[in-house]
Amino acid sequence: VVRGDPDEILQIGPLLETHERFPGRTNVQVVRVDSPGEVTARVWERGVGETSASGTSAVAVAAATHADGDVVVHFPGGDLRVRLEGGRAYLRGPAAPVDESSQGRREDPRVRPLT
Predict the structure, then answer these.
(1) Engineered SS bond to 64: which of 1, 20, 45, 79, CB 3.0-4.6 Å?
(2) Taking the CB of residue 63, how many other CB atoms lie within 10 A of it?
(3) How far apart are CA 45 and CA 50, in angstroms?
């Protein structure tokens, strides 16, 4: 997570993704803190390039910029909400199917709907 101008992701992302300190490559987030509890970010995913949003990146950005509490992370693809509480992170946001394949799918008893 890099604090800076999210519009610089196209320059910063490829440089950090392939930096020698990350032999397996890495994801990169550039974030600007807009106000307490609100940030704007863009994401560069290793091997993919820029993505419109990422739940994993939303949690990383929230944890890097806030100790606890609610954080709204604005991505080009939409907003995600993260609650940091007692060393845990809770993520909320829209979900949409991208693939209907059932090959290799199995139910995971640890996954349950948020209430």
Answers:
(1) 1
(2) 16
(3) 6
